[in-house]
Design a protein that fits this description.
alpha+beta; OB fold (Dihydrolipoamide Acetyltransferase, E2P); 5-stranded mixed barrel
């Protein structure tokens, strides 16, 4: 049992490392992600990856899905302008899936 747990932990760490290495560049990369889809103001999010231009949010909201598409890192801008006014958005970088090729419900 301990060997199985150690192997599973090692595999998860290795896959996380590969994903992180793969997302270090700004080139779009085809990926499949799995997680619960949550609605946002500008689309949806699955496992910390934002799905932009995704119109079927109501069909898949709060369900476990597998989504395949092109993922890339996107830079956000400052949330406050020179006049001190705040705008909606994000600072820093985030992973965005811009082209959803396939989405399937894999659990409720």
């Amino acid at each position: 049992m301990k060997k199985t747990l150690a192997l599973l932990t090692t595999t998860i760490i290795f896959l996380s490392f590969l994903t992180a290495c793969n997302m270090d560049n700004s080139e779009p990369t085809k990926m499949t992600i799995r997680g619960v889809l949550h609605a946002t103001k500008d689309g949806a999010v699955v496992d910390d990856i934002f799905l932009t231009d995704f119109t079927e949010v109501d069909t898949y909201a709060e369900k476990t899905v597998e989504v395949t598409g092109m993922v890339e890192k996107v830079e956000g801008g400052p949330l406050m302008n020179e006049a001190g006014e705040y705008s909606q958005g994000f600072e820093g970088t985030r992973n965005v899936m811009t082209e959803v090729e396939l989405i399937e419900i894999v659990g409720e």
